[in-house]
Amino acid sequence: MRVPRIAYFPDSFHEVNGVAHTSRNFVAYAGRHGLPFLCVRAGGRVEEFEQVGELRTLELGRSRSSVRIEKDLEFDTLFWRHAGTIRRELERFRPDVIHITGPSELGIFGAYFAWEMGIPLAASWHTNVHEYAARRLVWLTKHLPQEQGAATEQGVESGALWATSRFYALARVLFAPNDELCRMLEDTTGRPCFLMQRGVETELFAPAHRTRSADDDVVVLGYVGRLSIEKNVALLAKVERELEAMGIERVRFLIVGHGSEEALLRQELQRVEFAGVLRGAALAEAYANMDVLVFPSHTDTFGNVVLEALASGVPAVVTPDGGPKYIVRDGETGFVREDDGFAEAVATLVRDTARLKQMRVRAREYALGCSWDAVFDRVYAGYEVAVRRAADSADSADSADSADNRKKA
Q1: pLDDT at 68
Q2: Distances (CA, A) of 11 to 112, 117, 132, 378
Q3: Residue 134 in this model has a pLDDT that exceeds 70
């Protein structure tokens, strides 16, 4: 079977989040391997087209009427104005599969043109939108009686999951970053789901970038990611208070990222450095200068930052919810704990420097086995299933038409 021609519509590309990070690496993979690949994405305010070999990029400007969802993420309510441009490029490229990453303006257009042009649709799940919707209702539900508040959040989460699943059911094949999500998607959509995990650049993220003095005995607890309510970052302040109550004071936090909860953390954390958003070499150095990553999110579908920390020789403490628990080997490359066990897990490593050193080595060893090429090779295997299912459906339709014609004759 020839390599399928892929038109990829990512929700985000230039932003700082898991979808964008995966998408940039996916485009790089296609370019490295000379694959016929079209990336249709949004960015800036102008329209640009670029082609290098078999790799094509159509970047569409967002209008000033875009609605801000996060600090660096928008939804353009006037994106329909690009419909003609997208259709013309798809007609020129002739994709075998259109791949979307969620119900954004890009995802909606990708799904529409897949239907209109009769092209098999693939969809990858990157964000637990239903859980985010429930978490962001806290401003309201905290004022309700406890049972009513919990029921309201559960109702919103269930409704959002139902609606999102109906959207994903439009695709012939699905992708998700962990087995748990794949099973959920298969149950709610009836579509086959393949793993689309994430890789790591082990040369960029490496212990060699550590710049701290060898005699610096302060244990640096790191956090990297959006400072928002769904990331459960308020737990960081609770961890600091509990460590202090245990008599452990030679720790400090290094926070990389921004978001709505930053003001709260600045108010409650006592020993902390806020580095803002970092990229490239600056981010790699920040990771390498940490000793333990404290990642309290319950909603992450994978956890890029956890894998980047492990590659930097930094063990992680994560929750038993979402994707990070599949990355961390409990007791070997970090700890998987409920919220009330985070402080004790950190205390274990602060008190036992030999164990911390051993975990740093094992974390790096684990990350060296994760490559982007292996991740996207599996994705292309999923595309072949999408193309085959489309061909089978077409054959079935042709057979049905032939039978009807014979009956009429």
Answers
A1: 76
A2: 15, 21, 16, 21
A3: no
